[in-house]
Amino acid sequence: MYVHVQISLPNYLMLGAGDRTRAKMALERIIRMTSRSVNNLVKPVYRPVRLHAANVHRNRLERGRRVDAPPDQLRMLHYWGARGQQQDPAAARMMMSRTVEMTLMRDAWSQRVENSLLVFGEWDSFSNDTGP
């Protein structure tokens, strides 16, 4: 019998410079997401004891199986922010045209994440000058 050792999450990009009028976390500022996975790379979640060799995107399992997470249930949201969008406005417009509004993270999680960051003194998480 095989045990699931890896769950592979499809890679979706969160894009845009976001609203920097006040200090906010990236998940509050950036609310546009690619409408589908952007590439064949996945973000894996593992059972470490069954991992033979670790790598960022591809790993070798000693035994067991991997399963793809259904994108309608679980996704990796990769916050890109303004990266690469400042140099070429045309490329930025093209990238933004491939996105849809996605406010679920902001609406469901931002207050919880903010409270956790404040408890641990992570003040720079709310800077308008840092992050994506």
In short:
The protein has 132 residues and is of the alpha/beta class.
SSE diagram, text form:
Blueprint: E1 4-15, H1 26-29, E2 32-34, E3 42-46, E4 51-53, E5 60-61, E6 65-68, E7 76-81, H2 89-97, E8 99-101, H3 104-119
Parallel strand pairs: 1-6, 1-7
Antiparallel strand pairs: 1-2, 1-3, 2-8, 4-5
The tally of domains stands at 1
Radius of gyration: 17 Å
DSSP strand (E) fraction? 25-35%
Shape: globular
Percent helix, as a range, is: 10-25%
Number of strands: 8
String of helices and strands = EHEEEEEEHEH
End-to-end separation in angstroms reads: 44 Å
* Count of helical stretches: 3
Unreliable segments of 5+ consecutive residues: none
- Briefly note the structural class of the backbone: alpha/beta
Give the overall average pLDDT. Answer: 80
Largest beta-sheet characterization: 6 strands, mixed
Describe this structure in words.
- This protein has helices at 26-29, 89-97, 104-119, and strands at residues 4-15, 32-34, 42-46, 51-53, 60-61, 65-68, 76-81, 99-101.
- The longest helix is centred in the C-terminal third of the chain and has 16 residues, at 104-119.
- The strands form two sheets. Strands 1, 2, 3, 6, 7 and 8 form a six-stranded mixed beta sheet that branches. The chain has a two-stranded antiparallel sheet with strand order 4-5.
- The chain has one domain (4-126).
- A hairpin with a 6-residue loop joins β4 (51-53) and β5.
- By secondary structure, the chain is an alpha/beta fold.
- The chain is built from three helices and eight strands, in the order βαββββββαβα.
